[in-house]
Amino acid sequence: MIENPSREEMGQMLKKSKRIAVVGLSNNPERTSYMVSKAMQDSGYEIIPVNPTVSEVLGVKAVKALKDIEGHVDIVNVFRRSEFLPGIAKEFAEIDADIFWAQLGVENEEAYDYLKEKGYTVIMDRCIKVEHALTK
């Protein structure tokens, strides 16, 4: 069963975090991933677009995969369909980021169990922008 940290704990995580890699970030301003990432960028977070089909989003050069990011990543925020989460979870474990965050409506027990067994913090089916607004 998927169990998220409390809202208070999520707020603490967001206060400590600075770099957010966004898997599936679209360069279309109409898409939720774009709107949420722009709001987080406007709030002072460094956004790293992870999408092999675009060259840049929000003025930042996109990378094809998580492993292409230089330096430490605090949060990996995922905007992909739930069935893609197990593969993304494996990539996430390879770069040893701190928090795996699957966006509202996105969850997968296999990916959750895999990451929890490795000791990672996992949040699923929650909007990072909403949690940020409610806890700042």
Quick recap of the structure?
This protein has 136 residues and is of the alpha/beta class. It is built from five helices and seven strands; from the N terminus they run αβαββββαβαβα.
Structure description:
This protein has 136 residues and is of the alpha/beta class. The strands form two sheets. A five-stranded parallel sheet has the order 2-1-5-6-7, with helices on both faces. A two-stranded antiparallel ribbon has the order 3-4. The chain has five helices and seven strands, in the order αβαββββαβαβα. The termini are far apart.
Query: What gross morphology would you assign?
Result: globular
Q: Which regions have little confidence, pLDDT < 50, spanning 5+ residues?
A: none
> How large is the count of helical segments?
5
How would a textbook summarize the main sheet?
A: 5 strands, parallel
Look at the structure and give the mean pLDDT. 97
Straight-line N-to-C gap: 28 Å
Number of strands: 7
- What fraction strand? 15-25%
Protein traits:
single chain, 136 residues, globular, 36% helix, two-stranded antiparallel sheet, five-stranded parallel sheet, alpha/beta, 5 helices
